Amino acid sequence: MHYIGKRSCDCHPALDKYMSSSKVVKQLVKEGIVFYKQILKIHNTKEECTQHEIDLHEAMDVAKSDRFYNKCKQTSTGFDRTGIPLTEKHKQKIGNANRCPKSKSRKLSEEHKQKIRNANRGHGKGRKLSEEHKQKISKNHGKARKVICIETKHIFNSDSEACRYLNCAIGSVSSAIKYNHRCKGYY
């Protein structure tokens, strides 16, 4: 079995004794299992290294493969845990982290609540726009940048159209373009 991961250190990578951040691998090392480290590539920047790890994880589908200890795939912002069920304890932790403690929650006045309701009503419809703002909107109307998938040669009329096609978050395609990385496995 294999584990693909990245590591940065101040010494030569071959001299670094660190093995893995994987809980599974750490547990097996504690149980006496011996692992051998193979350095696949040395990079000059963390960004290059992360992108190489992303590419390898995607190409080998490490999270789903029985050949790898990896339980999830590296992404540009963290790890993709798609398909890994959450325990009830983990769900509770996430829920607690997303809740604001009552002692820290703001008490809103009725007037403030009403202003929020009015602002959210119709998603901003009824809001008065200045003439300058209206001109900017009409000037840019229909001028979204075209997006071309390098691998499939598919042309999209906008970032949002590409996101809908790939079934990904709205900012994913523009982020992939900006940082020159894959989005849903495509360049």
Give an overview in words.
By secondary structure, the protein is mainly α. Among the domains are: 13-80, no CATH class; 147-179, no CATH class. It is built from seven helices and four strands; from the N terminus they run ααββαααββαα. The chain has a two-stranded antiparallel sheet. Strands 3-4 form a two-stranded antiparallel ribbon. The longest helix is centred in the N-terminal third of the chain and has 15 residues, at 46-60. It starts with 22 loop residues before the first helix and ends in an 8-residue tail after the last helix.
Uncertain spans: none
Helix count, DSSP H or I runs of 4 or more residues = 7
Number of strand segments: 4
Radius of gyration over C-alpha positions, nearest whole angstrom: 24 Å
Average pLDDT confidence is 79
Largest sheet: 2 strands, antiparallel
Helix content: 25-40%
3D shape: extended
| Estimated structural class | mainly alpha
Distance between the termini: 29 Å
* Percent range for β-strand residues: under 5%
Lateral strand order in the biggest sheet: 1-2
**Element string (H = helix, E = strand):** HHEEHHHEEHH
